[in-house]
Amino acid sequence: MLTLPEIYSLPLNRAAIDADHILLSPELASFVPEQTELDLGDGVMLKVHREGEILVGRGLVKKLSRLGNLLQWSGGGERVRVSGLQLDGDGHVGAGAAAPPGAYPAQTGESLHAAQRLLEAAWKGDFSSGEGFFLARELMDLSVKPGFDELLSFKATTGVTTYPHQVNTVKTVLRQMKGRALLCDEVGLGKTVEAGLVMMEYLLRGLVTRVLILTPPSLTHQWQDEMAQKFNQDFVLTDSAAFAAAGGEAWRRFPRIIASIDLAKRGDHYRHIMETRFDLVIVDEAHRLRHRNTAAWKLVNGLDKKYILLLTATPVQNDLDELFNLITLLRPGQLKTQTEFHKQFVARGDRLKPQNVERLRLQIGQVMVRNRRSSTGIQFTQRRAMTVRSDPSPEEERLNRLVTDTVRQSYLLDRPPLSRLVLKTLQTELGSSPRAVAATAERLLLGGLPPPFGSRMKEVFDLASGMDQSARLAALGKTLTPLGNEKVVIFTRYTTTLEWLRDNLKDYPLAVYHGGLNVRQKDEAIEKFHREARLLLSTDSGGEGRNLQFCHVLVNFDLPWNPMRIEQRIGRLSRIGQQKDVHIFNLSTRGTVDDQILEILDRKINLFELVVGELDLILGRLGEEKDLEETIMEIVGGSQNDDDLRARLDQVGDRLLEARGEYEQVKSLDDALFGEVTGAG
Q1: 54 and 97: one domain?
Q2: Does residue 183 contact residue 310 with C-beta atoms inside 8 Å?
Q3: Least packed by Cβ within 10 Å: which of 29, 92, 155, 167?
Q4: CATH number (domain holding residue 645)
């Protein structure tokens, strides 16, 4: 049996960082010792040292380039032998270049055939062992030269209005950055659309088949809707039944996957994802990868991928090492080693203060695009929010007290008669409609409850089912009347409340949108609202994937405790393409938990006037594993009385206010450091 020597190949023109540094593949890095001598033939020796995957040596690239642009590495130990082969851009062997024994001569056929012959030779062992080896990928890349002068993706999108800054970004990523880029547009400029267009260009040219999108948990469904509605691409979610049924094989079986990065980095998921090849990886909110010792950074760094897009509006939040770590994910060695990065670009004694800023911008401009709102020429409209508070009726006050006391008495029991999910549902339905509360109470009674909760739930049901009106419903009527014929979207959390509203708004021409409709019915509902209806009654499913810029008035009949859900509602109207200021009316009943939450979100962080996309950056600075909705429920269930509840909610508001202040500082820092980076020319 013939045992081939361990040989690796490396395209020098892809690996060269500068005159003294080249980037090795992970396989080659594990093969080359930290201190070694390169044998370049004809008695030429070169001492080098390796820092991670970066090889360092004086005049290294110039000496290696004399051998060719496709290098062979063999030997190992104290001396590594290097020989070369010269290929032109079409994968042909260049005349007169140094070539290893048995190399195939140049051919006159198509470049793809030449690449295939080289691949065959490599597989036989002329160039490499063919094991753990990426020569095949690089040669095919050399042989295919798709032109990106004319973008194809615009013809394959639905309802996407593109802007000059987005077109320029896509071309820059494709032509100059070779599909490995940091997209750092200011919030609200459409980074998702830019990433989708890059993805479509590769898909349409057959350069990409398998795509993985990694997002925070709260954004997985939003990305799925965006990809389906705008780019006609069906992505499977990792929390779907189909994905779960396939087990670990799912990561290889499905060609388009959207995953929570929190899930992907855990347990068996991490193991399976590391064994899977992806053509394109897109990471949203990539500032969460700023620390290279975290599981999230190691996950993305270790993925087997060809193209990668990192999306964030705030690449630097605490120190400049975060920028180094992000760019290392895209192009290791772009900023050389961490030691040299500090020496050249970080001021002594202040890890957040840059030096040699213009040179730093030049370096990061080769992998980063950052567009600013002020330079796009797009006119952005304002958000104008108003809270409409009303006093509860005596029946509503009684129902509020009854439900909240039941939640408090049950929440901390070791074996509560009602699950925490049910308790949370009752409490949030209380801030929506009596019909929603009555429907849940009825289901609980049918299932049976032990005393005294059975009799208490019967009291809740009797009280809620007997209420045909509410202070909030009356406030809605008073809000709609002065708006004349303006189109209005009315959001509610619950289908039961939506049906109650439909029954009480029969005098208005309206359309209804909720998650129980199929795709055709949803399309018909939006078309009816666009064409003839004055009101659109929608659950939160209408806050995902559907853009309603033809309307500029929104009523939050009730409010989710998750601020991102509120943001998604507003984002259907307040986004690029909206021609008018967006007016937001928040309905609230005094004395309720929801009223206190609304006051915190409005007073502390001015939620309703934030630029689209800013909220997630603020919430991300809280540094808590659980989301804000879960935190609020723990406060409600664990509070002793209303005063205790109010004090603990105020503490949450103070943390949000502090997080907003930190975000504003980070935003100012990023603006000062990066300005507008449009990519290297």
Answers
A1: yes
A2: yes
A3: 155
A4: 3.40.50.300
